[in-house]
Structure formats: structure tokens, C-alpha cells
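Reminder: ligand-aware prediction takes two inputs, not one.
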Amino acid sequence: MKLLAHSVFLLLLMLCTNASDEQVYIVTLHGSPAIHKFSGNGGSPRARARLFTTRSATVAYTAELVARHDNLLSGIFTSSSYKKLYSYSHVLNGFAVQLTSKQADALRSLPGVRRLEKDCRVVKLTTHTPEFLGLSTGAWPREGGPTNAGEGVVIGIIDTGIDPTHPSFSVKGSVAYPPLEDFHGKCEENGGSPGFSCNGKIIAAQHFAAAAQAAGAFNSSNDFASPLDGDGHGSHTASIAAGNHGVFVSNDGFYFGEASGMAPRARISVYKALYRQFGGFMSDVVAAIDQAAKDGVDVLSLSVGPSSPPSSSRVTYLNAFDVALLSAVKAGVFVVQAAGNGGPYPRTMASFSPWIMSVAAGLDDRNYSNSIYLGNGAKLTGAGLAPATPGDQMYNLVLAEDALANTSGFSFSPSNCQQPGVLNKTLIQGKILLCTYSFSFIYGASTVKRVSDTAKNLGAVGFVLLAKTDLPGNKFNPVPLGMPGIVITNVQDSLFLLDYYNASNGGSDAWAKIGNGMNPTFQGTAPQVALYSSRGPGVKDYTLQDSDILKPNILGPGSLIWGAWSPIGTDEPDFQGEHFAMMSGTSMATPHIAGVAALIRQAHPDWSPAAIASAMMTTALVTDNKGQPLLAQHYSSSGGVDLIQATPFDFGSGAINATAALDPGLVFDAKYEDYISFLCSVTQTDHTQVMNVTGSSCGVKGTSTSALNTPSITLSSLVASRSVTRSVTNVAGVAETYILSYVEPPGISMQVSPQSFPIEAGKSVAFSVGFKVAAPITGEYSFGSLVLRGDKGHLVRIPLAIRAAAR
Ligand SMILES: *[C@@H]1O[C@H](CO)[C@@H](O)[C@H](O)[C@H]1NC(C)=O
Ligand SMILES: *[C@@H]1O[C@H](CO)[C@@H](O)[C@H](O)[C@H]1NC(C)=O
Ligand SMILES: *[C@@H]1O[C@H](CO)[C@@H](O)[C@H](O)[C@H]1NC(C)=O
Ligand SMILES: *[C@@H]1O[C@H](CO)[C@@H](O)[C@H](O)[C@H]1NC(C)=O
Ligand SMILES: *[C@@H]1O[C@H](CO)[C@@H](O)[C@H](O)[C@H]1NC(C)=O
Ligand SMILES: *[C@@H]1O[C@H](CO)[C@@H](O)[C@H](O)[C@H]1NC(C)=O
Ligand SMILES: *[C@@H]1O[C@H](CO)[C@@H](O)[C@H](O)[C@H]1NC(C)=O
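Here is what comes back for the chain with 2-acetamido-2-deoxy-beta-D-glucopyranose:
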């Protein structure tokens, strides 16, 4: 029950340090990687995987690239003076190598070498949802029910590994998973202890740790040189995307209903590249992407990303990570990435490129709260997830400070109730212990689980954790507590309780009982954008210049999500030893979208990644369950949490509607060449840089970044007027006539042409949208929308974010 902002994990924080002179570099060479050499656009990732593994020319080509890498290195360095960690041959032509800075300079000047990027240290920072998303009655029945939803689709998860013995991934009792034709992922079986094995549902699993090992960060007895999850995060995200249907969730002996992945029949391919204590390294993550693209995954889910725009390239889109993902998209892989947990401040996105679906996190309609009833008749509410105190009677209260024992030699403040030894059992037994929530719960080692353990150890019947001062971000994530307990998060309520205690004969006449907090409440307005979810606008370089690409792209459920946990997982002390955990973060929102993408791929195997993204975005919801415009959590001036009307910079196109996404009517499609044109039009990019990084040349025709055919229009700097073109493709299978309408962003006047059009099945139609500054310039963005309404009932909506500028 740490502060939300801190129990959200995500985030590979990029720290490109070079403590010693030896350093790992990601080196890119001239010459195409295999994906660029052998495949055009379209088609399934698996058809490509077949190409890469069975066609002799491709097999020979990748072998030749690897030989070239080795020859290049052995040609200038003695074999003992460097260490190659990986050859990348599918999504990048290059390698990761450990070198001294002098060697790096020598390598950089060799012909054939395009670029050296220092490897980045990546540090980890952090289910009722199928019903909430309408899957049970919407998308699943269309795909043959939960026992078939996701069949034949592979979701690749780059994370901390997986617990293969978990019921969320078990094949016991389910129809056997036959091998998937043309899927080529390997399973790294490991005979050691603890062992690892795949089972058909977990179709493949590998780990990538060469850079972690080279840096001396990897400890095999702790981090496991296998795909086994020693952390918990990877099992949690995998279960959200593709965990089995109807798995009983229990924690600390209590039952919390059933959990299910979004695509319960999808197969999972595990790429472990993040580790317990130290997080991971970018070159290991790139190796995981290279392998996933080669294997032929349909969807790649990344609950990881940098905490700030990487400075390895001036343009955010051209670092090795984003470029590797662009190649994967070219191969047909749908890529989903967490938006980041840097909210609610603007320009905090950790995901940048238009070929990536960036996911913001929302709160859904479930909440756990609890009440405490005082002897004076007052009732206070707080965060719970704990059983009630026994019987109907009241129990005596005792403040931790009034029950001290031997306090010498203890590291925690006794009032935080972290260690039983500091407190006097005789004075606490049979009573409700009052403890204080302080800063050390946020930045120190204090946990609510330890409060619970301390109270239990001292024989208390329950505990209350009081927030006596308003700490920054004072928002609790309720974790299951092993005994009656409540966290009073409201400062006034906490002080009220303390007053009552003081006024009741120094506590000896203070009484209370704690209510039952085990049952969730399903009320309130939902979804809402969570406080921690990173906000747009997207940025195009590390000086945080705004881009013309809408970020984030979509809102998925991310708060208080139950999912599988590895009992040996150490990520969250509150869940150590458990098989399930309730977590929050854009890390949790991302696999929801990955799972829905798998359902779309199952229904429409020939759709491109851009078409899948478009289907989810144009059908997303911009109103909540009360029919009102979506709200976003922000800080109020007093430091509390306020709800204000959300914008596309909070939720992108809106909240996912999985049912509608299966039948969008129209899609805004884009191909690899369109992304290259986009890169060529980014003003800071010179064309040789695009050539150097992607191997594609720019041509002469200048375009504008807003010309990329995205299902949104963002103009970060509209001077006077501009016209933007978009093209839609009819994927409904029948001809339909669409009428265009729009809501003008305040201060902007608009025109569309044509105002309506018929469109044949499978055909594309272009339309133009004109924007004109129509009010004094404020420097602020204003937001509108454009809607295409079809006569067969399809409704296609795209958000508009426009900022007028003087020049
Ligand atoms: C590796 O982890 C084990 C188990 O936690 C620990 O005993 C050992 O000291 C660690 N080794 C290093 C080099 O940190
Ligand atoms: C959930 O419950 C807590 C504790 O009662 C309360 O402070 C919070 O506002 C509730 N959240 C929502 C979204 O209803
Ligand atoms: C605990 O409290 C009891 C009752 O007041 C007292 O007799 C005892 O000495 C205390 N023990 C310690 C270790 O302070
Ligand atoms: C108090 O605790 C310290 C550290 O655990 C211990 O060294 C000391 O002997 C204890 N004193 C008493 C009176 O129990
Ligand atoms: C209650 O009494 C204690 C000790 O007498 C004092 O430190 C504390 O400030 C009082 N609390 C309130 C809320 O009055
Ligand atoms: C989601 O889309 C479906 C199909 O278009 C629609 O029936 C349903 O009402 C939508 N859900 C919500 C919550 O609006
Ligand atoms: C592109 O590569 C060439 C040859 O390696 C190099 O001279 C040039 O500086 C690079 N350009 C950029 C923008 O990185």
C-alpha cells in the first residue's frame, strides 16, 4: 500500500553512464537487416518467420551478417580485447559489443559503420476488467467464447520472465494447444533449480542477459539464467494479456473473485530482459526485439520504456530501441508500449514513435474501501481490503507511541509499526494498534505489509494506519492485509481520530471496530485517467519540442489490477510469497491493449499493425459510464487530487472499446514507407541520419510530419492556415456512404472536403481537412474532433489537437 506513484513500476530509466572506460555499445552497420532485405509490407509475421527460418537465401543472409560482424571486429581488434554480446540481424544490422572508448573511436571511423550508441542502463521503477471492457458479452462471443478468444495468436512479452507453474498459464483442463505452424520461438528448458519448461500455452521462452552479465550486474542465484520470473512483474503483465479464463484469485488466504486475460486462448512467448534488482540494459532489450520479430510473434507488449527522451539521437524516434521496433512493425508485428508513469505533468511520455501504440492508464469502476466505527458514534472511511474485526463489539485503541518497549538499536520510527520488538506486547494484545504513515513509506523501506505483520505478531486484533500530514501524492494503493486493518488517507479524519483518542482518558476509554473491506464497490465514474499516467503532448527530441504525433494513443485499465504473481517475486514487498497481486501502472494498462490487439488479429489476420491501431483508436470512448466527457486526475492547488475534464493529451483517442474495435468500418492505414517519409520530414533530422539509421533514403519531395496517415491530427504550430490530408480504407466488407462532421477546436475554424463520400469495400478514399486560426493566439492547444458517420452504422472518430502560433 505504497503511494500509487511509487507502486507503479514500468520504466526502464535510461542512464547512459560510463563508470569505467569499458562500455557496451550498440553498433549499427550499413546494409539491410533481414526483415528489410526479404519482405515487403503486409502479410502475417508468421509468414515472414517461415521465410527467415526455412528459405535458404534468408538463412544464408543472416549467417553472412553475423560473419560480417565478427570479421569487422576481428579485423581491427585482437580477440581478447573486446567482447561481442549479440549480433542483431533481423530488426537491425549490427551488434552489441563491449569496448574501451579508444576502441570505440577506431570502430566508429571504419567504413561500413553507421553509428555507435552507448548502451543504456535500464532501471525498473512499476480482474474484473474483462467485464468492465465488455469482452464477455462483446468480443469473446464473436470469437467462439473465452475458450477460443485469441486462438492461433502469439503475444510476445518483453519483461521479467514468467512463472510457468501458475494457474493463469496452466494447460490442465484446457483443450490441448497444438503446435503453431510457422512459429519459430524456442523454449529455453533449463534443468537446473529452479527449472523452467514451456507447455504449449507458453509457447516459447528465452532470456537475454549478456549485457547484464558483462556489466557484472547479473547474479545467477538471484536473477536466474532462465526465463523464470524472479520478480513478479512479467507474470502479472502476461496474465493480463493472455492469462487463462476463470482463474480463482486468492491472496493471503482470502478469495478475490476470478481473473482472466483479455485473450485467454492466445499463446505467450516470453522474452526475459529485465531483472529483479537492477532492471535491465537496452542492448538486451533490443536482442529480445530482434528474436521476437524473427520468431513471428503477432503482438509485442512492452511494459517498459525510458523515463525521459533518450539523448543518444537528437530525434526521439531514431534511438536503437525505436528503430528496432520500426523494423518489427514492418514485419507485421503490432507493438504496444506503456505511456509512462510520469503524470500528471505535460510532456512526460516515455513512448514516442508513431509506429508504436502508447497506452495511458485509467481507473476502472472497482474500488476497495473500508470504514472504522468509533466509540463516539463517528464513522471514518479509508482504504481497506481487509476483513472486519471479529464480532460486533468495539475494541480498545492503543497508539504505538504509548506502547513502546526497547527502542534502542532500531532503524524505523516506532510509530510506523515496522518491527514488533520496539513495542510492548502486553499493552497491545487484544487491542487495535494505531500507527502513523510517514515519508518512509514513500521513499524508505516501510511497508503496510510490515505494519500488518507487526500488529499480528503483537496479538493486536487490528490496526489503523493514519496519515497525519498531507504527503506529496498521498494516494494509497490498497493491498490485501492479512488481518483487520484500515488506512485513513484523509488528514482531517486522521486528526479527528487522534483527538478522540486523546480526549478519551489518554486512550484508555477510546474504542472502535473495523468494518469488512474485502468486498469491492462498483460505483463511481469510470473510466478516469489515473494521476500517474504520463501526459502528452508527445515530444520529438530530448529538448522536449512538441511533435505533430498524438501521444498517448489510447486509455486502458491500469489501476488496482489483479494478476498472476510469482511467489518468489521480490518486486513488491507487499506481495512476497503470494500467487496473485494487485498492481497499478501504465505497465498494467499495456497488456490489456496487447490482448485486445490479439483478438483483432484473430478476427482479421491480414490487417497491418497501423490498421489494428486505427481500429482501436477510432472506436474508442470519449465519455464515461455516466455519459459525461472523460475526466482525468490532476493535483489540486492544495496537493490533493482533483478531477478535471480530460483531453486527448491525457487519453489519446479515448478508452478502449474492444467490441467496437473488431468492426471499425474504416481504418487509417500506414506502411513502412510512410513512416520513413515521416522521419524525413521531422525538421531536426537531416536526411543522411535517416539513411544512416534506417537504411532508407528520403527522396527529394518534402512533406510535413502531419501528413502521416494517423487516426488523429495534431498541429503543434498552426500558422495562419493549413490543410491536412487523410486517407481511409473500407474494411467492413460492404460499400458504405460516410458523412463527415466535426467539432472545431476553440479558436480554430475548419473545413472538410468532400463532406460526404461513398466507399466500396476494400477501397480507399482521401479527404482533406483545413484549419485556420480564428482567434487571438494564446499559445495553448485546443481540442476538437472529426467524425465520419456511415449509413451502415459505423462511427469513426478522430481527435484534433491544434496550437495556433504567430509564425
Ligand atoms: C548473489 O545472490 C546470492 C543470493 O541472494 C547472494 O548470497 C550473493 O551474495 C550474491 N552475489 C553477489 C556477487 O552479489
Ligand atoms: C476509492 O476508495 C477510496 C477510499 O475510500 C476513496 O478515497 C477513493 O476516492 C475511491 N476512489 C474512487 C475512484 O471512487
Ligand atoms: C510492558 O508493559 C507492562 C505493563 O505496563 C510493563 O509491566 C512492562 O515492564 C513493559 N515491558 C517493557 C519491555 O517495557
Ligand atoms: C534493546 O535492544 C538492543 C538491540 O536489539 C539490545 O542490544 C539490548 O540488549 C536491548 N535492551 C534491553 C533492555 O532489552
Ligand atoms: C494527542 O496527545 C499527544 C500527547 O499528549 C500529542 O502529542 C498530540 O499532538 C495530541 N494529538 C492531537 C491530535 O491532539
Ligand atoms: C462499445 O461498442 C459496442 C459496439 O459498437 C457498443 O454496442 C457499446 O455500447 C460500446 N460500449 C460502450 C460502453 O459505449
Ligand atoms: C551518416 O554516416 C556517414 C558515414 O558513416 C557519416 O559521415 C555521417 O556523419 C552520418 N550522418 C549522420 C547525420 O549521422
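The chain has a mean pLDDT of 88. Residues 56-76 form the longest helix (21 residues). We will return to this case in the review session.
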